[in-house]
Amino acid sequence: METRANSTQSVGTNLIDLGMISLTRGSGVSLHRQLFEGLREAILNGQLPVGVRLPPTRTLAKQLAVSRNTVVNAFEQLMAEGYLVTRIGAGTFVSEALPERWLSVEVPRQTGQVAVGSHANLSKRGHKIAAIPIGSRENVRPFLPGMPDVRHFPFSVWEKLLRQQRHTMAALGYNDPQGASALREALATHLQLARGLRCSADQIIITSGTQHSLDVATRLLSDAGDTVWMENPGYSRAVAAFQCNELEIIPVPVTSNGFDVEAAQRSSSIARLAYVTPSHQYPLGVTMSAARRLELLAWAAENDGWILEDDYDSEFRFGGHPLPCLQGMDGAGRVIYIGTFSKVLFPALRLGYVVVPRGLIVAFRSAIAHTSRTPNWVTQLAMADFLREGHYARHVRRMRLLYAERQRVLLAEIADQQLPLAIDATPAGLHVLAWLPVDVDDVAISAELAAHNIAAPPLSYYSLTPLQRGGLVLGFGGFDVTEIRHAITRMGSLLINSKLLEI
Q1: Rounded CA separation 480/413 (Å)
Q2: Which CATH architecture has domain 126-135+152-389?
Q3: Which of the ends of the chain has fewer CB neighbours closer than 10 A, N or C?
Q4: If you classify domain 2-102 with CATH, what class do you get?
Q5: 3-state secondary structure 473-495
Q6: Quick check: do 2-102 and 394-496 share a fold?
Q7: DSSP secondary structure, 287-323, as one string
Q8: Fold assignment, 394-496
């Protein structure tokens, strides 16, 4: 049943048409809430002008056939939110300073100024950051690199662990910026056993992923204009992190033994940072030799340098024993170890970590506290249980076998199709590098494949300097053997008929 006030109330020189107010009983919305919203809307659209006096609560209650408490409650809410004001002895009036006027910005008339969204008013640093390409996130299609197969993730287990933590008091408040102690303790145990790290839980800082870790480490350990040694070709998002922090990037060649320390020192005798992916270099796939690791550690110790060790793809080695991580070999406390769960579990998890020397704990903790805080606490607590209860280790073992089979199928299909690709395949990781014939434009070939729904990023995309030979980075982790076989068949047909490639 609907109640509507149809009368016009005369107050001094102001006439108020109360026909604008209608209340519906049984609608599921309380009458005082309906009255509040009706009056608020009338105020905002000008039906109740600024400064007008409203009828007394008893009068309005009678006209609307509701209790006086209903009107009083609506008025009190409007006054609390700044729409109405009371004047002793005079009555209740529409406020002359409405909330929406405080919260909104008047749209200026066009005056020929630069449009909103341009870079005109950015800082110098802002201009540099805005100019760095973000890169589009492609649809998941063969052979997009960096994709684990999320279809095999034990979501039922994960959802159970999330439910157990979702309503705990520990998950609902402001928490330690360093991250959940339960996760850091479980992670310290895992890293000691699986990767040979020498660390305790208090040296671990939880982040939202590798990019977050790189940004925090770079801001804390370097100043604008400082030099960073960067693997070339190398991880493009690390390049972006260094560019955002205004570092001078020195490209360092990567050989079959990994990061070339001697070449780095010849290029720039003074460097503040060195960024390396020693376990499975991205994108070349090589493993940094023990000799090169010792060389790099010696450089850092002797020159007050810092090593950013991105332990990329370390979990997925298909044969033999991996070399210990740099951090585990570091006796001088110069290595910042960076890890993530994204490539093992699923990218949207956005959960990573950084292991720092003891002298940097306070600085990293402070940086997280004052800039971004720690990732979702429920997720952290669930991840702690996922590690402690053995689910993580079981998942890694299953996926290691699965990925090894997919790499084998990929290599066999390329050979069977007799594709003009020279494969650099190491028994690790979720991608392989396919070299193209000399003088073939890998960017053009990649674009041609992309036009036919095959993702094969060009090696040139990852390089800071021109390459002597182009190649394609082929990810196989996110695709089953049937998808791999079909995609290689299509790829072979495209390459055979390509005008860009003579076969």
Answers
A1: 13
A2: 3-Layer(aba) Sandwich (3.40)
A3: N
A4: mainly alpha
A5: EEECCCCCHHHHHHHHHHHHHHH
A6: no
A7: ---HHHHHHHHHHHHHHT-EEEEE-TTTT-B-SS-PP
A8: Aspartate Aminotransferase, domain 1 (3.90.1150)
CA distance 244 to 252: 20
- Domain boundaries of the chain, sorted by first residue: 2-102, 126-135+152-389, 394-496
Q: Which residues of 196-220 are buried (b: 16+ CB within 10 A; e: fewer)?
A: ebbbebebbbbbbbbbbbbbbbbee
Q: What pLDDT was estimated at residue 232?
A: 97
Count Cβ atoms below 10 Å from residue 432 Cβ, excluding itself: 24
Beta-strand runs (E) in 146-270: 204-207, 227-232, 248-255, 258-259
Instruction: Note the pLDDT of residue 10.
Output: 39
Asked if 256 contacts 237 with a C-beta cutoff of 8 angstroms, the reply is no
Return the exposure string of 41-78: e unless at least 16 CB atoms fall within 10 Å of the residue's CB, then b. Answer: ebbeeebbeeebbbbebebbbebbebeeebbebbbebb
Residue 396 half-sphere exposure, CB side, CA atoms within 13 Å? 20
Residue 290 to residue 341: CA distance in whole angstroms: 26
Q: For the chain, which ranges sit under pLDDT 50?
A: 6-15, 102-103, 105, 107-108, 111-116, 503
Residue 115 has what pLDDT? 45
Q: Give the tens place of pLDDT for each residue, 189-244.
A: 999 998 999 999 999 999 999 999 999 999 999 999 999 999 999 999 999 999 99
Name the pTM for this structure.
0.76
Token pair belonging to 171: 């998950």
Contacts of 9 (CB under 8 A, 6+ apart): 15, 16, 18, 55, 59, 63
Give the side-chain half-sphere CA count within 13 A for 158.
Answer: 13
Q: Where are the beta strands (DSSP E) in 168-225?
A: 204-207
Q: What is the pLDDT of residues 149-189, one digit of tens each?
A: 999 999 999 999 999 887 666 656 667 899 999 999 999 99
Triad 490, 433, 467: Cα angle to 5°: 110
Provide the pairing of β-strand 248-255 with 84-87.
unpaired
pLDDT at residue 14 in the model: 40
Q: Which tokens in the block code for residue 355?
A: 């292991």
